Amino acid sequence: MPSPEAGEWTIESYGADVAEGGEPVTYSSLDETPINESPTASFTTTRTGETFTFDATGARDVDGSITAYRWEFADGATATGPVATHTFAPGTYDVTLVTTDNQGAQGFGHSSTVLRVGSDAAAATIYSGTASTLTNAVTADGGDANLYVDGAFSCNSNGHVAGDVTVVGDAYLTSSCRIDGDLWVSGALKMDSSPRVGGDVRAGGAITFQSTARIGGSVTTGSTFTSTDGRSVAQLRASGALAGVVNVSSFVLLPETSAGNRIGTAPLDGTAQIPWAAWLRAIATGANAPSWSPSLSDKPGCTVSTATAGTSTVPVTSAAWIDARKVTTRCDSVALQGLTLRLSADLTIVSDGIASTNGMRVVSADGKPHTLRLVVPGTVGPAAGVGQITLLGTTDVDPLITAVIATPGTVQINGPAQFNGQLIAGRLVLTGGVTVHSKFEPAQL
């Protein structure tokens, strides 16, 4: 009895099958003093230029109130209060928050690593958590950091990034690769044949450069700069291969790993969480599908298509978060087969694996901006398709739709494909003409 009223209590008990002479009954009571729960110390981080704002107004104390907030920024500086703003010098930092409640209990929270590089992985149009190759007419444009590779990077053929590239590892640029913005490389950089970098180049390791390549800005290396065909820096500048100066510096600000923890499973605020089976049943019912359609049964399967739901056109009239994880569907992965998604609201599909086969078309049904999220929060598993998002065939997304495709596993797109949004993946496999435009704020996952 939680929080009983003060006074005397009378307890009556009634038993069944009691012996004729009665049976002994023993009562005991215990007045428990509640244990003080520690407060939470969660906080969000936003960035404006070189300044970061940390907001802990969402922190809570379930059995009291938070009376103190202390921020430690790992550079000797501290702050108090639920919201703090701080500007860091170049480097990486683990920000700590300590909250104290009205009974003296404390909670502790930590930030993810703060990046101090020319481009931020959180704003990347395309993010790869491992080595990546850009080829075969793959284009990324818009945003602050158009391509972030947490591993070695290779760019060849018609690979094109209409902005900045950040590489945690070595980089190799060849053929007609084109980077319009700056290039940051933590390791060594090799440029041969005729690649182009429109902005500055910074590399922590050695830079090897062929005179037929082009760099439109300055060059900074933490090691050496060498021309493979024996040209001096002066000759390279005179020929137009280098537009700026070459600096050899012991201090080159290197990129750090970042965005792998940005893939979550919680429904967004105000979004209805709908089980996969219920979603398929609603699609089939709206399409007047025959009674024998699998989507109308208790076991609708793992595919939504004309054959299973009676239609290839799926309307979305209210914000929906579709739970297609194996724990609720028994499906290792789910398939969207030849679908047209007509969005009048945002749609999120979360599964252990997602595949779009025979192409997919996504349109705004009401002429307003909406967001499509395909999210696989887990990693690669033993079953085929687990931890993967695969788009096969033509992927045609209305410019009004922002598409967010995210998994710590593999994203494979066999184009042609073109959309506004983000790709966030542990590994990228892009072929057949893939273009990703980013002209929006980084999406909430």
Compact description:
The chain is mostly beta strands.
Present the secondary structure layout.
Blueprint: E1 44-48, E2 51-55, E3 66-72, E4 78-80, E5 83-87, E6 96-101, E7 106-110, E8 124-128, E9 132-134, E10 138-142, E11 145-149, E12 153-155, E13 160-162, E14 165-167, E15 171-173, E16 178-179, E17 183-185, E18 189-191, E19 196-197, E20 201-203, E21 207-209, E22 214-215, E23 219-221, E24 225-227, H1 233-239, E25 246-248, E26 272-275, H2 276-286, E27 303-304, H3 306-309, E28 313-316, E29 320-324, H4 326-329, E30 334-343, E31 347-351, E32 354-364, E33 370-375, E34 388-392, E35 395-397, E36 401-414, E37 417-431, E38 434-438
Parallel strand pairs: 8-11, 8-37, 9-12, 10-13, 10-38, 11-14, 12-15, 13-16, 14-17, 15-18, 16-19, 17-20, 18-21, 19-22, 20-23, 21-24, 23-25, 26-29, 27-30, 28-30, 29-31, 30-32, 31-33, 32-34, 32-35, 33-36, 34-36, 35-37, 36-37, 37-38
Antiparallel strand pairs: 1-2, 2-5, 3-4, 3-6, 6-7
Describe, in plain words, how this protein is organized in 3D.
This protein has a 6-stranded parallel sheet with strand order 9-12-15-18-21-24, with no helix packed on it. It is built from 4 helices and 38 strands. The two termini are 41 Å apart. The protein is 6% helix and 41% strand. With 445 residues, the chain is mainly β. The radius of gyration is 28 Å and the shape is flat. The C terminus is likely disordered.
The count of β-strands is: 38
| Global mean pLDDT | 83
* Beginning-to-end CA distance, first to last residue: 41 Å
Give the count of helical stretches: 4
Tell me, briefly, the overall form.
Answer: flat
Largest sheet: 6 strands, parallel
As laid out across the biggest beta sheet, the strand order is 9-12-15-18-21-24
Helix- and strand-based class? mainly beta
Note the beta-strand portion.
35-45%
For this structure, the quaternary state is single chain
Roughly how many Å is the radius of gyration? 28 Å
- List low-confidence stretches: 112-119, 250-262, 440-445
Helicity level: under 10%
